[in-house]
Amino acid sequence: MTTASTSSTASTPPSGDDVAALVESLSFTADGLVPAIAQQHDTGEVLMLAWVDAESLRLTLETGWATYWSRSRAELWRKGATSGHLQRVLSVAADCDRDTLLLQVDQTGPACHTGTASCFTGRVVAEPADPRSDRSAADENRGETT
Ligand SMILES: N=c1c2ncn([C@@H]3O[C@H](COP(=O)(O)OP(=O)(O)OP(=O)(O)O)[C@@H](O)[C@H]3O)c2ncn1[C@@H]1O[C@H](COP(=O)(O)O)[C@@H](O)[C@H]1O
Ligand SMILES: [Mg+2]
Ligand SMILES: [Zn+2]
């Protein structure tokens, strides 16, 4: 099982065996966590990165609401439980080496607790050099390909 999805038409949540198989297939950190990126399903906007453990992943799949593990509070955390800014989860994908998850969600309100649309909105912290203006790198690259 590489993905799990729920939708408004889905009537049966994934079975305990399905969830167990998914958990078994994932690569967790030593703390038992997997990073989970939440992405707005229709716009592609990257909303936030949080962490799931086996239990929060199970709750996410069984309820359809994004549920994470808060590292600082050390508790299960249904995103939006207090703010109302819930995330309906449409699908869960694992990356190629199964150590990162991508949650396609439908976000209610702002994803970030500061009120910004995503946790990254307006937070560019660096702008690298334009590679097209770097002659020496361009010359090196040409040399490597001939
Ligand atoms: N609401 C959020 C929230 N929304 C998005 N994120 C992102 O999710 C990441 C969670 O990763 P971590 O495990 O490092 O979070 P944390 O620092 O342990 O979590 P907190 O103790 O800060 O809740 C954060 O770094 C943010 O980028 C949030 N991180 C924390 N919260 C807190 O969650 C609480 C409940 O908020 P709602 O879920 O919106 O009701 C509030 O106290 C918020 O401050
Ligand atoms: Mg944090
Ligand atoms: Zn944030």
UniProtKB/TrEMBL annotation:
EC number of the protein: 3.5.4.19
InterPro entries per UniProt: PRA-CH (IPR026660), PRib_AMP_CycHydrolase_dom (IPR002496), PRib_AMP_CycHydrolase_sf (IPR038019)
Cofactor(s) needed: Mg(2+); Zn(2+)
Keyword set includes Membrane: no
Subcellular location: Cytoplasm
Pfam families registered for this protein in UniProt: PRA-CH
UniProt keyword terms in alphabetical order: Amino-acid biosynthesis, Cytoplasm, Histidine biosynthesis, Hydrolase, Magnesium, Metal-binding, Zinc
Origin superkingdom: Bacteria
Top EC class, one word: hydrolase
Residues of the Phosphoribosyl-AMP cyclohydrolase domain: 48-121
Gene3D superfamilies listed in its UniProt record: Phosphoribosyl-AMP cyclohydrolase (3.10.20.810)
Main subcellular location of this protein, as a coarse class: cytoplasm
Cofactor: binding details: Binds 1 Mg(2+) ion per subunit.
Family: Belongs to the PRA-CH family.
Its biological purpose: Catalyzes the hydrolysis of the adenine ring of phosphoribosyl-AMP.
Name under which the protein is recorded: Phosphoribosyl-AMP cyclohydrolase
Species this protein is from: Micrococcus lylae
Lineage of the organism: Bacteria, Bacillati, Actinomycetota, Actinomycetes, Micrococcales
